[in-house]
Amino acid sequence: MARYLARQRLSAIRVALEDPLERRTISELSEAFGFGSTAALSHAFRQAYGLTPRDYRASARGF
After folding, report:
1. pLDDT per residue over 11-56, tens digit each?
2. Is 30 within 8 Å of 41 (Cβ atoms)?
3. Exposed, middle or buried, 36 (CB in 10 Å: 0-12/13-18/19+)?
4. Residue 29: how many CB atoms within 10 A of its CB?
5. Type and span of the H or E element at 20
6. Domain residue limits, the chain
7. Which CATH architecture has domain 2-61?
8. Where does the HTH araC/xylS-type domain lie (predicted)?
9. How far apart are the C-alpha atoms of 23 and 49, rounded to whole Å?
């Protein structure tokens, strides 16, 4: 069950990172979705998607 919830949170963060209207920082998203730190989010996100949240946001937005 914990893995499922973690995947759901990561998926929601991924969607937020893709949204050009989303103004929250990675740190704010980390806190909003229950990660203990930005580093914890970054590690989990990289394991799931192969990129850091910052790199994913940049590629999704074409920067």
Report:
1. 999 999 999 999 999 999 999 999 999 999 999 999 999 999 999 9
2. yes
3. exposed
4. 21
5. none
6. 2-61
7. Orthogonal Bundle (1.10)
8. 1-59
9. 21
